[in-house]
């Protein structure tokens, strides 16, 4: 794209796939077992595959959040790669600094100039959508060579399920309780992909751990982008979403099958739906599985369905094909 | 070293500056007390699709290379075993197994 050539960054090679089958996923475990993430944690699956996709030549920068708290309980660490945690709000700024340091070390001849070392900034939805927003915006705007991964469990799960701006409409959290006057969250989720797109970032993707090959391939592509890239990953949380721990992947899969979550890939502004859903399920199946949506009445579910339909229509129009099909009742 | 060995580190044993010297040392922890049910893989039924290994949050499914011949005569080059030290018993593997070769069995202590 000529237009994107005016801005920072260069898109990865999207013509080839490195992870074609499950047997292409490397066996090496760079996130050690024995960490304190909950039974059935979605984020643990996401981070295992992140490290499998990016390999050893990486610096992980992490904002405060579930994964930071559970993997680095002193005097232990679950990470087998270089890792730094500074504060809640500045994962992206620290990552920018390390990217600049790597550049300087290459110029001074300490690191070989052809060696690829990339910084991966990771944060939860709180550390990205709310607290880390301005650091993220600065990083994307400056065009630093950083890959940013958001694992989105749709509330502040680590501190006890408080709402964040990623919490979907109608969800119960401890700060949006259900009672006579309040019926859970009444605001919609922030569009982080739209915000990243406004910064003209060469590579943006949304992924879902229920589609592991799609997820790991997107991590690989984001890693090979020259310049900033952003991957937004859904990460089901059994205690916060009020689901049994064995249903993590099932719920994640239903999010895509109902159209509540669309697996997108935006390369130099060109959107593409990577997991197409020809026949969509009604959102009721997804909502009924989770305890945080237990209080929803039929009219609330009909309202969510209406909004999801509109959102799907917008995405279909945007990608220029019917990637997500109409609702089919079973 | 960790709580699993029954004792926390004293101040004399912690390195200067509180540096963690060994990467990935959580692998020493025993997480078996977290679970109520443990997964048991039926090697005869298993079709080696690798899905349990992919979806395990704790890397507690181990891929072991080596030939395995089922009673019906199929030969597989790998087989999957559960690392009972790190398994937290979430049951994702049993739920996602396409041939239902993994059963959740109650722990008896």
Query: Which topology of chain A does CATH recognise?
Result: Rossmann fold
> What Rg of chain B do the Cα atoms give?
18 Å
What is the rounded Rg of chain A?
Answer: 19 Å
Question: What is the terminal separation of chain A in angstroms?
Answer: 43 Å
Looking at CATH, the homologous superfamily of chain A is: Thiamin diphosphate (ThDP)-binding fold, Pyr/PP domains
Estimated share of beta-strand residues of chain B: 15-25%
Low-confidence stretches of chain A: none
Largest sheet, strands/sense/barrel of chain B: 2 strands, antiparallel
Large-scale geometry of chain A: globular
Greatest chain-chain contact: A-B, 42 and 39 residues
How many helices of chain B does DSSP assign?
Answer: 2
CATH architecture name of chain A: 3-Layer(aba) Sandwich
Oligomer: heterodimer
Silhouette of chain B = elongated
Query: What structural class do you assign from the helix and strand content of chain A?
Result: alpha/beta
Put simply, the count of helices of chain A is 12
Structural class of chain B: mainly beta
CATH architecture of the domain at 34-106 in chain B: 2-Layer Sandwich
Question: What report would you give on this structure?
Answer:
The complex is a heterodimer of chains A (330) and B (109). Chain A has 330 residues and is an alpha/beta fold. Chain A has a single domain, classed as Thiamin diphosphate (ThDP)-binding fold, Pyr/PP domains (Rossmann fold). Chain A contains 12 helices and 8 strands. In chain A, strands 2-1-3-4-6-5-7-8 form an 8-stranded mixed β-sheet, sandwiched between helices. In chain A, helix 3 links the parallel strand 1 (58-62) and strand 2 (83-85). In chain A, helix 2 packs across helix 8 (212-224) and helix 4 (91-107) packs parallel to helix 6. The longest helix of chain A is centred in the last third of the chain and has 22 residues, at 298-319. The relative contact order of chain A is 0.14. Chain B is mainly beta and 109 residues long. Chain B has a domain at 34-106: 2-Layer Sandwich (Alpha-Beta Plaits). In chain B, 9% of the residues lie in helices and 25% in strands. Chain B contains 2 helices and 4 strands; from the N terminus they run βαββαβ. Chain B has helices at 51-55, 92-96, and strands spanning 37-41, 61-69, 75-82, 102-106. In chain B, strands 1-4 form a two-stranded antiparallel sheet. Chain B has a two-stranded antiparallel ribbon with strand order 2-3. The model of chain B has no long low-confidence stretch (mean pLDDT 88). The interface between A and B is large, with 42 and 39 residues.
């Amino acid at each position: 794209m000529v237009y994107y050539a005016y801005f920072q960054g260069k898109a990865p090679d999207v013509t080839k796939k490195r992870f074609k089958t499950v047997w292409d996923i490397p066996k090496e475990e760079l996130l050690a077992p024995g960490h304190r993430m909950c039974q059935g944690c979605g984020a643990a699956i996401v981070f295992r595959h992140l490290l499998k996709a990016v390999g050893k030549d990486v610096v992980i920068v992490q904002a405060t959040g579930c994964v930071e708290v559970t993997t680095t309980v002193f005097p232990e660490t679950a990470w087998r790669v270089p890792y730094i945690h500074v504060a809640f709000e500045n994962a992206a700024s620290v990552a920018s600094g390390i990217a600049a340091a790597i550049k300087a070390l290459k110029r001074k001849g300490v690191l070989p100039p052809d060696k690829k070392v990339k910084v991966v900034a990771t944060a939860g939805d709180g550390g990205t959508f709310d607290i880390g927003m301005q650091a993220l915006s600065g990083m994307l705007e400056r065009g630093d060579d950083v890959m940013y991964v958001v694992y989105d469990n749709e509330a502040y799960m680590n501190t006890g399920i408080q709402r964040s701006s990623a919490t979907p409409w109608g969800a119960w959290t401890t700060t949006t309780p259900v009672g006579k006057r309040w019926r859970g969250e009444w605001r919609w989720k922030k569009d982080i992909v739209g915000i990243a797109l406004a910064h003209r970032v060469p590579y943006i993707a949304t992924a879902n751990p229920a589609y592991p090959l799609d997820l790991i391939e997107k991590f690989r592509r984001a890693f090979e982008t020259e310049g900033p890239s952003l991957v937004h990953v859904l990460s089901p949380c059994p205690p916060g979403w009020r689901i049994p721990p064995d249903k993590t992947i099932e719920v994640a899969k239903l999010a895509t099958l109902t159209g509540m979550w669309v697996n997108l890939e935006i390369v130099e502004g060109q959107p593409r739906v990577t997991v197409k859903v020809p026949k969509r399920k009604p959102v009721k199946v997804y909502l009924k599985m989770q305890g945080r949506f237990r209080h929803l009445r039929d009219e609330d579910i009909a309202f969510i369905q209406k909004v999801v339909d509109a959102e799907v229509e917008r995405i279909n129009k945007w990608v220029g094909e019917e990637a997500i099909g109409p609702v089919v009742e079973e | 070293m960790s709580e699993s060995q029954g004792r926390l580190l004293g101040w004399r044993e912690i390195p200067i500056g509180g540096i963690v010297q060994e990467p990935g040392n959580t692998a020493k922890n025993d997480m078996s007390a977290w679970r109520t049910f443990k997964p048991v893989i039926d090697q005869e039924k298993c079709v080696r699709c690798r899905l349990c290994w992919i979806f395990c949050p704790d890397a507690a499914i181990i891929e072991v290379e080596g030939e395995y011949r089922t009673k019906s005569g199929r030969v597989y080059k790998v087989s999957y075993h559960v690392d009972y030290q790190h398994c937290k018993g979430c049951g994702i593997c049993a739920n996602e197994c396409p041939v239902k070769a993994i059963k959740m069995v109650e722990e008896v202590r």
